[in-house]
Every structure is written in structure tokens, then in C-alpha cells.
Amino acid sequence: MPEKFRQLGISEHTLHAIKTLGFETPSEIQEKAIPLVLEGKDVIAGASTGSGKTLAFGTGIIHNSKPDYGIQGLILAPTRELAVQITKELKKFLGEKKLRVISVYGGMSMGRQMDEMRNAEIVVGTPGRILDHLSRRSLNLQFVKTLVLDEADRMLDMGFIYDIKRILAKLPAKRQSLFFSATMPPEIVKLANTILTDPVKIEIAPYSKTIEVIKQAVYFVSRPDKKNLLIHILKNENVSSALVFTRTKRGADSVTKFLNDSKIHADTIHGNKSQQARQRALNNFKSNRTRVLVATDIAARGIDIEKLSHVFNYDIPDFSEMYIHRIGRTGRAGLGGTAISFCDAEERYYLKEINRLIKTPIPVIDDHPYKSGEAENNSIEIPVKKFKASKKPGSFHFSRDSKKRWVRKSRSKKW
Ligand code: AMP
Questions:
Q1: DSSP one-letter string for 314-374
Q2: Rounded to whole angstroms, how far apart are CA atoms 74 and 168?
Q3: Where are the domains of the chain?
Q4: What is the largest CA-CA distance in the chain?
Q5: Of 192, 159, 188, 211, nearest to 325 (Cα)?
Q6: At what angle do helices 12-21 and 53-64 cross, to 10 degrees?
Q7: Of 200, 205, 376, 381, whose CB is crowded by the most CB atoms within 10 A?
């Protein structure tokens, strides 16, 4: 069985670990990236969480690192949760190799991190905290052989670009750089070009596998009725575990509150929660102590939850690729799952963009008590943008709304 993995050139320690984990075949990203990574090439890959990318870059780092030779692998991730998850995942692939992998992120004691770092070979961290350690000289990156930027598009969205550039300046020029991003808007490609040397591009078949196994549905509902509809579905349908996405932190808090008020056990993770609170909420959800987890995109990014039965888009994402990332939390490892979206009148534009991206309109559920009468047209056509004439004669400007959409559309352009 690990024969297919062996053919990629993976070393014995990791092959042994893969066998223990019971992986049968390499995922697409693993098949394409591992031989290049092991050859020492720089790679830019369009792959998101759930694609198996941790093993794809981890194999190279593990192969190239030796115990007691300082920090040889540095992985930058946008959020603490993702850093913790990558660390956990990487440790699984070490086999008998005595390498130490640690996570470094804000909210943890600096002192403890400094102690851990003295003996680590692989560091997974958020850019801000890595930079903190660099400025205190408690982190030495001169022995780094491999740099990984994971979820690079998120890091850019979250404003980490300057932190990343400062970290890059502290790394040896001769190194391998691996760049992973779920989306490839032009600014990401530009950043990649400044970091990578003669990179090989890898694209994996976008989304189809994820989408196929997920049952999707959209409910047209007015904004005030979304609350009642969510309670109605959670009380009446067979929903064993649900991840509910909201666009804002306030929205997440409000959904959590009304669910709990209706005796539906819910918790929330978002950027304003302490690290401990987020980790606790996540652990409770993963171990089925909490049935519903309400999250914002950034907080939930990269979070891997096995056997999640439902994803709810309480707010339709305003960036169509985000829809794929959200619903991809369910339907893991070929298991089925259901993705339910609530769409109010103002979100119709975003829904059309999503329909266009996934190439088939999401089936509409008409039979529910909060129907808003919006269902007449769920086509793929995008409404024509309206341009308002500017007050200045002879010139035009975008309305605020259409300008936002234009920016979004250019951000979501694929490479
Ligand atoms: P990742 O995209 O690296 O976060 O991986 C997503 C999940 O898939 C993790 O739980 C991995 O342990 C699992 N995984 C990675 N590669 C494989 C594989 N080849 N076969 C089965 N599961 C895998």
C-alpha cells in the first residue's frame, strides 16, 4: 500500500508513518508536489486545506532536517489554529525520526516558547509572533533550509505582508521556498515572485471532488427570518454537527446567543476570543460536546473537522471561492455532508457569482416556513453592473457597491 507513496521518493520514516495512518493513495497535490519538493525545487501550489498539502510540504522538511542542527524548517501560517493543526499533522509524519516540531503564536508565554525553540528543528508559527522572537533575538533562522508559506492568500488578506518581508530578510538566501495558497489573485503571484526562485507551478483539479460528495441547498429568506430558519432546521432536521459561518464577529456572537437562548448548544470562535477560549470551543466541537460551532472565515480557516455533517452559510460569502472553502469542511475523506446557504435579497449577487463558479445553480429549497419569495430565479447570470454618472460632467464613477464588487472580482481572478 505505501508503494504509491514510495514511488514519490518519500523516506522510510515517513513511509512507515503513512502506513500506520492507513493512507491508501497519495492525494493529487501529494502526487504532484512531493517529487518536486524532494528534488529541492521551489514550488507554488494552488491547494487549500483538506487537499493533503501538509504531507506534501512536510515530507521535504522532514527529509531534509537532522536532529540537533537548529531550526531547519519554518512554516508560516495565518492563524494560531492553523499553526496548531499543521504542527499536529507534521508530528504524525515523523515516524521514528527524532525531530521536534513546535508551534509559535501570540497568546502563549514567550518564555515557554523560547525554551521550546532552543531544541526545535521545525517551527510552525504566525508571522507576528515569529517576528517578536526575531526582534528579541530568541529565534535563530540562519539554519533554515525550507520555508513554507501556508494559506498565503489569507496571510495577505490579514495584512501580514510586511511581517513576512521582515522575516524573509532573516532567512538564508540559499533555501527552498514552498508557497501554498487556496486562491491565486494577482497580488499573491506578485508576492510569490519575490520569494521563490524559478518555481514550478502546481494546480490541482479545482474543487470538483469536494463538491461532488456534498449535498448543497439554498434557502431564500429575509435577513430577520434567518434566525428562525436556522433554529427550525437545527430542531427539525437530522443535523448531528454544524459549522455556521457568519461574515462578522458580531454576527457570530449574535447567532451563538440566540441558539443558546433556544436551548441549542452552540459556541463560537472568532478573532476577539482568547486563544484558550477558541481552542476550548474547537475541542468541544471536535469531541461532539458542542453541536454547533459558529465561526468567521478567518477564525475557521484551515480548521479540519472530521465527520462534520453540516455547514451553514448564515451569510453568503462575498468572495465566491470562499464558498468552496467553507463547504469543503464537510464531505471530508469521501464522506457525505450537507451545505446549506441562507440568501436574502441583498445577497443575490454573491449567490450568482457562486453559481457561476461551481457551474451549476445550487438547488433551492422552497418548502420551508420562512420563504421570502426570492426564489424565482437562481440562474448563473450575473446582473449587469450599474454605473452612476458622477456629478462632474464628462466622467463616471462606480457606485460604492459596484466598486466593491469589482475589487472582489479582480481578487478572485484565477491564475
Ligand atoms: P491537510 O490538507 O494537509 O490539512 O490534510 C487534510 C486531512 O487529510 C488530514 O487529516 C490528513 O491527515 C489527511 N490526509 C492527508 N493525506 C492523505 C492521504 N493521502 N490519504 C488519506 N488522508 C490523508
A1: SS--SSHHHHHHHHTTSSGGG--EEEEEEE-GGGHHHHHHHHHHHSSPPPB---STTB-S-
A2: 11
A3: 3-203, 208-358, 384-415
A4: 73
A5: 211
A6: 150
A7: 200
* Listed residue (266, 332, 274, 276) closest to 303, CA to CA: 332
Q: Name the CATH topology of 3-203.
A: Rossmann fold (3.40.50)
CA distances from 283 to 81, 135, 273 (A): 11, 33, 15
Whether 3-203 and 208-358 share one fold: the answer is: yes
CB within 6 Å of ligand 1 — which residues? 23, 26-27, 30, 49-55, 89, 304
Q: For residues 189 and 302, is the Cβ–Cβ distance under 8 A?
A: no
Q: Whose CA is nearest to atom 22 of ligand 1?
A: 23
Residue located nearest, by CA, to atom 15 of ligand 1: 52
d(CA 338, CA 414): 26
Return left, alpha or beta for 167; rule: phi > 0 is left, psi -120 to 50 is alpha, else beta. alpha
- The β-bridge relationship of strands 387-389 and 396-398 is antiparallel
Query: At a CB cut-off of 8 Å and minimum separation 6, what does 287 contact?
Result: none
Secondary structure letter of residue 398 according to DSSP: E
Distance 51 CA to ligand 1 centre (A): 7
321 C-alpha vs ligand 1 centroid, how far in Å? 21
Q: Using CA positions, which residue lies closest to atom 12 of ligand 1?
A: 89
Vertex 394: Cα angle to 392 and 395 (nearest 5): 65
Per-residue pLDDT of the chain (415 residues; tens, 9 = 90+): 578 999 999 999 899 999 999 888 898 899 999 999 999 999 999 887 677 899 999 999 999 999 999 999 999 999 888 899 999 999 999 988 999 999 999 988 888 889 888 899 999 999 999 999 999 999 999 999 999 999 998 888 788 989 999 999 999 999 999 999 887 778 888 889 989 999 999 977 655 555 778 899 999 999 999 999 999 999 988 899 999 999 999 999 999 999 999 999 999 988 788 878 888 998 899 888 999 999 988 777 666 777 789 999 999 988 777 788 788 877 665 567 899 999 999 999 899 988 888 878 999 999 899 988 655 566 666 544 333 333 333 333 333 333 343 334 333 333 2
Q: How far apart are CA 2 and CA 89, in angstroms?
A: 18
Looking at the chain, the whole-number percentage of residues with pLDDT higher than 70 is 85
CATH class of residue range 208-358 = alpha beta
What DSSP character marks residue 263? Answer: T
